[in-house]
């Protein structure tokens, strides 16, 4: 399969996920600003989830840009990743609807954790397909940032039993970490282009 089809399908699914999330925020009845108050928890949940989906879309785009060939295991790993992303609207909607109560926050954190695990599996699968001397392996390395994120998700789930807001705070913290552009693949591709250009001369 051409990787363009994989990218197009993934982009389409992610676009649908974002659309479903925003539809969870119902139009308020009334014209007073006070009618917006009940929507605040849902809006906070939406902003957090939109940020995560945006981060994953950005990183997935860069990852696919460095891929040269697509294998069967990659297709399944990508579907697994999209499956966990598709649960974001349900988890985010439940959390916002219940004003960040204990179990909705824990379920939301579990979905974040599983999405991160699924993305890590996708990266490992791509590394195996591309080979140990590939651009992807060189760019991502041991992915310390991804492993640290998993630990924060687990910590957030655990701390939610003390107070759910601690869990939400950690989920926001991880989003902030990833919101800073991850330029590992861009830098690796720039280095590779320079090497190829020098070799041609």
Give the % helix: over 70%
Order of helices and strands: HHHHHHHHH
Biggest sheet character:
none
Q: What spatial form do the alpha-carbon principal axes imply?
A: globular
- Based on secondary structure, the structural category is mainly alpha
CA-atom Rg in angstroms: 19 Å
Strand content: under 5%
Query: Tally of extended strands?
Result: 0
- Mean pLDDT across every amino acid position: 87
Count of helical stretches: 9
In the predicted model, the low-confidence regions spanning at least 5 consecutive residues are none
Distance between the termini: 34 Å
How are the SSEs ordered, and which strands pair?
Layout (H helix, E strand, L loop, with lengths): L2 H21 L16 H27 L5 H15 L1 H10 L4 H29 L4 H6 L3 H16 L4 H16 L4 H17 L1
Helix pairs in contact: 1-2, 1-3, 1-4, 2-4, 2-8, 3-5, 4-5, 5-7, 5-8, 7-8
What does this structure look like?
- With 201 residues, the chain is mostly helical.
- Helices cover 78% and strands 0% of the residues.
- Helix 5 packs antiparallel against helix 7.
- The model has no long low-confidence stretch (mean pLDDT 87).
């Amino acid at each position: 399969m051409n990787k363009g089809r994989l990218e197009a399908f993934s982009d389409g699914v992610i676009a649908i996920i974002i659309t479903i999330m925003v539809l969870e925020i119902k139009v308020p009845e009334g014209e007073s600003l006070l009618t917006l108050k009940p929507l605040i928890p849902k809006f906070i949940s939406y902003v957090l989830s939109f940020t995560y989906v945006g981060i994953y879309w950005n990183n997935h785009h860069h990852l696919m840009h460095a891929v040269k060939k697509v294998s069967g295991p990659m297709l399944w790993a990508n579907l697994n990743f999209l499956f966990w992303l598709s649960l974001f609207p349900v988890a985010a909607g439940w959390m916002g609807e219940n004003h960040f109560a204990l179990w909705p926050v824990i379920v939301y954190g579990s979905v974040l954790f599983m999405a991160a695990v699924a993305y890590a599996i996708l990266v490992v699968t791509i590394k195996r397909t591309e080979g140990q001397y590939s651009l992807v392996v060189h760019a991502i390395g041991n992915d310390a940032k991804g492993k640290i994120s998993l630990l924060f998700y687990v910590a957030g789930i655990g701390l939610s039993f003390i107070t759910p807001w601690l869990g939400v705070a950690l989920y926001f913290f991880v989003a902030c970490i990833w919101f800073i552009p991850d330029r590992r693949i861009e830098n690796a591709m720039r280095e590779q282009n320079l090497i190829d250009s020098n070799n041609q001369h």
